[in-house]
Amino acid sequence: MNPEIQVDGNKDKNLKSCKRTLSIRLAQVCSKKYHTMGISKPHHLLQFNLLASQEEREGEEEVTRKRKNEDFAEVRSRGKRMKKVEVAKEGNVEIENEDNEEETEKNFPLSTNREREMEGAEEHDIVIVGGGISGLATALALHRNRKGIKSVVLERADSLRIEGGAIGILANGWRALDQLGLSVSNHLRQKAALNQRSFVISLDNGTQKEVPLGVGEGRCVKRGDLINALADALPFGTIHFGCSVISVELDSSVNSFPILHLLGGKTIIAKIVIGCDGGRSEIGKFVGLKPTRQFSHSAVRGLTSYPKGHTFKHEFIRWKKNDSSVLTGRIPIDEKYVYWFVAFKSSSSQAEETWKDDQELVREKTTELLSVNKFPKEVIEMINKSEVESISFTHRLKYRAPWDLVFGSFRKGTITVAGDALHVMGPFLGQGGSAGLEDAIVLARRLSKAGLGGEMDDEMMKKRVGEAMDDYIKERRIRLVGLSTQTYLTGMLIQGPQLFVKIFIILVMNVLFRDARGHSKYDCGQL
User: Fold this and answer.
1) Greatest CA separation for the chain
2) pLDDT of residue 238
3) Which terminus of the chain, N or C, has fewer Cβ atoms within 10 Å?
4) CB 344 within 8 A of CB 369
5) What is the pTM of this model?
6) pLDDT tens across 196-247, in order?
7) Which CATH architecture has domain 126-192+220-293+398-497?
8) How many CB atoms lie within 10 A of CB 269?
9) Quick one: 5 exposed, middle or buried, by C-beta within 10 A (0-12, 13-18, 19+)?
10) CB 335 within 8 A of CB 310
11) Neighbours of 142 (CB within 10 A)
């Protein structure tokens, strides 16, 4: 129904009927458009105190019939992004010149903050939030797909981030990298030596035990080498730096497509959003993932350079205290670089929180910790000589509980998550990065089968993408629940639980994971 027109008999009756009618009709159409969009009422009431006789109202109907299509088209054009309409706070409003668009806008200010925001918004088909390993791998998987699906990657930093020193990639991860292009995987193989064996050494009794982590190819790759290899293989302009997403929404006024709000006021409308923004993912929160949990251990990681070459064998060595208070690992990357880590039970959260801003302090505190616990001198010397800029500190290692992966929601509309945003896990199996690479291959394959890269209307696209994401989630859930459970139980053992808890965990692992290295045999398939 048209809005009711209030009539004030005390106003001047000499206004031109046609112009008065146009202003009334414009308000009516705006109100109708505003009402059908389901938008909340504006802060100011729409008031038109007009004088009209019976004859003038009859004349209005005639003018309305003649101008209906023209006026509706004009208002529709100006109001399609409208969230609210503000019109003259009080008194009569008269348009002196119907053809003067500037004057019309002045008298009928349809533009609002919401309108201006949408007017300046960027539009993209696929937006990947996060320029880490998983985000870049997902963009590359879409690009390498036979349909060459285009995407953009939003990275909050001003450059590629290489924190963490290095990352272990087992056979399943290399199978995923091969799908991203042999030029990428073979380039990385040349930069990382093949790991031959893996040992655990007890500092309490000096015993040494071989504990293979996986089956087949295993290498330790500099995180910077991996990030750069993935980024270099992407089309120019794919990565947008300095783009920090602070919130996401689904807005019915833009066909229920995701709207991303960035720090600084920028807005992006996307048809598909993939959150690869880590364990504290804004996208993960939006789709309904529960918060991550914490282990009792914190970790320090770094790289040590030996310009003249080191003498270490290409073996993964771990030293530990029997009470599990401290665990240190070393693995050569190539002939001149070594990756190391130190995991220890957190004592003072307040003190440790100050470490992350001072890499020199982290190195100093770490060597003190190892000295007090009587670790080998070669280990302490290795950390003392490490490149301070490569050192990173993680207070209380994070993980997503396996039961949250069983029952969690990983999709809302055409929005989903991958990588650590989906399955952040402890480093105890060395599978976090490889699992993120697997996500990229599976998600790109499913989206390709949905017909992306072809022509389809928005409704059909949303339906097919939703189904493709559901298939991706179903496939990945099976894999990730098992992987995260094994990682979680391994982490619990490393934390040094009470004896009866330790026995129970060992029994469960023997039942569920009879093949302790089976996690590295997984094949995510082809693009």
Assistant:
1) 106
2) 97
3) N
4) yes
5) 0.78
6) 899 999 988 889 999 888 999 999 999 999 999 999 999 999 999 999 999 9
7) 3-Layer(bba) Sandwich (3.50)
8) 17
9) middle
10) yes
11) 28
